[in-house]
Specification:
The protein is α+β, with helices and mostly antiparallel strands. It is built from 13 helices and 23 strands. Bound molecules: zinc ion (2 copies). One zinc ion binds next to α11 and α13.
């Protein structure tokens, strides 16, 4: 042991604990309260629903029911079980062979299971009944079992517990820097944070996650339901973007967006587009509004979703549009995105130069009679600049081009009008000036 040399020893200790121990040996009850996992998990109760194969064979599969409740360092053979009176149950670990459907066809898989046959038959086991499991000793893997027939389930209490657990898991995910939280950390933390961890248990967390539209479990971590790993992208390819259904009246409604360049936010356009119109229509009007080429380069849309309450966002891809108005996002309709005023989209023109725009929905209004959509309805007040060639000749004309070649050569901005550009800068590489 030696004294810490860190500038802020406490902060570095905290982050060390968070990174190396969260979920393994420690549970963060909140940002400031830490408990050793064995203490946090003692008395936690969870529900194990019995499937038909389990009820018929008198067994309980080790996975996935005991995932994160039976810590990985303990072999199933070492786990111990007590009945509701605290009497030890004699439980053997057995192997159950099941035929399952995989994408390679039917396969025979061996599952490890706890053989509770004698005790389960005493309870009059039937499928859909549950075991209510209390963690008596996390470190040694000791569990107390109570049997609950399906008809005795208290549905209201289960629903309330499920909501609380789902919200805790979602909040935990929202607080994470990356867009996932490993089950090893998430499950003990969420259960320990329940207002009554030892109370009547709701559904198993797998069921809770499955039923919640915000999150999903990918086999090792909780992530956002719309998150797709690179492998999933590879296997599934382009997947249609989930869209909400909307009425014809909603389809006619007008979505008023403020579109601005990310790095020149003073340059903006107000754009109105109807709910029934598509991202291809949006792409087209954005190209017009910001004077991007309409015959070259891709455009792409993302949805920006705020995480928690701060200024952190995550992005969900909505699809791309090629210059012919085709692409994975082409058919996506604005109203189908379920946007509310204040919501943000990101639009990128040209995946090479990556010109990024922020599209903020200002309001949703009724269409104007005879109005043509989409349309540009307002823009920033332009600060015009003038052609230097004309100025030298005593005329004032608006500069519409910057000659890149002359600018580079002279190390200053060479701004000219269309006429002077074609006369004096023929064959020079030039960019249009956007006001
Ligand atoms: Zn000129
Ligand atoms: Zn030039």
């Amino acid at each position: 042991i030696w004294p810490s040399k860190a500038k802020n020893a406490l902060a570095s200790m905290r982050s060390y604990l968070r990174l190396n121990h969260a979920g393994r040996t420690l549970v963060f009850l909140d940002a400031k309260t830490v408990l050793p996992t064995p203490l946090a998990m003692r008395g936690v109760r969870f529900r194990l629903p019995l499937s038909r194969p389990e009820a018929e064979r008198g067994v309980v599969f080790v996975q996935p029911g005991f995932a994160y409740f039976l810590r990985r360092e303990i072999a199933p053979e070492e786990a111990q079980f007590l009945d509701s009176q605290g009497r030890p149950l004699l439980v053997e670990v057995t192997t159950v062979r099941e035929e399952i459907e995989t994408f390679l066809g039917p396969q025979t898989v061996d599952f490890q299971a706890f053989d509770l046959g004698h005790w389960l038959r005493e309870q009059g086991v039937r499928p859909d009944d549950s075991l209510l499991v209390t963690i008596e000793d996390w470190e040694r893997g000791v569990f107390r079992l109570e049997y609950e027939p399906a008809q005795e389930q208290r549905q209201d209490e289960i629903a309330r517990q499920d909501r609380e657990l789902a919200d805790l898991l979602f909040e935990l995910l929202e607080s994470k820097r990356y867009e996932r939280v490993f089950g090893m950390e998430a499950i003990p933390t969420a259960y320990a944070r329940l207002s009554d961890p030892g109370g009547y248990p709701g559904n198993h967390w797998l069921q809770v996650v499955y039923d919640d539209a915000r999150i999903r479990y990918d086999g090792s971590a909780i992530c956002y339901s719309d998150f797709r790993s690179p492998l999933e992208r590879m296997l599934e390819g382009d997947r249609p973007i989930p869209q909400q259904s909307f009425s014809p009246a909603q389809g006619r409604q007008v979505y008023r967006f403020k579109a601005a360049l990310k790095y020149r936010s003073g340059l903006w356009r107000q754009i109105e587009i109807q709910g029934k119109q598509t991202l291809a229509d949006f792409d087209r009007i954005l190209r017009d509004a910001f004077e991007h080429d309409t015959y070259d380069h891709m455009g792409g849309f993302w949805r920006r979703i705020r995480r928690g309450k701060g200024r952190r966002f995550r992005e969900v891809e909505l699809g791309d549009i090629n210059p012919w108005g085709e692409g994975s996002g082409a058919e996506v309709q604005i109203a189908g995105l379920g946007l509310q005023p204040g919501d943000e989209l990101k639009y990128v023109y040209d995946f090479g130069d990556w010109i990024e725009h922020r599209l903020t929905l200002e309001e949703i209004v009724e269409p104007e009679a005879g109005g043509q959509y989409p349309r540009i309805t307002a823009q920033n007040k332009p600060r015009y600049r003038y052609c230097e060639t004309c100025k030298a000749e005593g005329r004032q004309s608006r500069a519409t081009w910057i000659c890149i070649e002359c600018s580079n050569e002279q190390q200053r901005q060479v701004l000219v009008c269309e006429e002077c550009l074609s006369r004096d800068h023929e064959d020079h590489f030039a960019d249009k000036i956007l006001y």
